[in-house]
Specification:
single chain; alpha/beta; two-stranded antiparallel sheet; four-stranded mixed β-sheet; 129 residues; Macrophage Migration Inhibitory Factor
Length: 129
């Protein structure tokens, strides 16, 4: 049940944002066994002065063209799955013409009680988990 939040420079084209999310979603399905129907994303645009990124921390990047990908998902993936996800997303970014060096990703894990999609309550209560 991932929910992706992708922080992008204001000038990044909508088509590129959608392609980034599609690549991320496909990688989550393949590497983390996410449900293909769990397709949720929020694109957050920022002005150049609104994102403060170190240009060389653990790699070289262009701070003015860097995206930050937050992935909130149910816990339970192995370290190997997470490493495979990060590597695969970067490969897919390169495939759509986006320089993967200009990406920062992180995961936020949670439980079914932490999600609610309707008046019925949490995912835990709706699915009786």
């Amino acid at each position: 049940m991932p929910f992706n939040k992708i922080h992008v420079p204001r000038n990044l084209p909508v088509a590129t944002c959608r392609a980034i999310n599609d690549a991320l979603h496909d990688s989550l399905v393949e590497n983390c066994k996410s449900n293909p129907d769990d397709f949720f994303c929020l694109i957050c645009r920022y002005d150049a002065d609104d994102m403060i990124l170190h240009p060389t921390f653990l790699g070289t990047r262009d701070p003015l063209n860097t995206i930050v990908i937050e992935i909130a998902l149910l816990g339970g993936r192995s370290d190997a799955q997470k490493e495979a996800l990060f590597k695969d997303v970067r490969r897919r970014l390169r495939g759509i013409g986006f320089d993967p060096r200009n990406s920062i990703m992180f995961l936020l894990e949670n439980r079914p009680i932490d999600w609610s999609f309707s008046e019925a309550g949490s995912v835990k209560s709706v699915l009786n988990l």
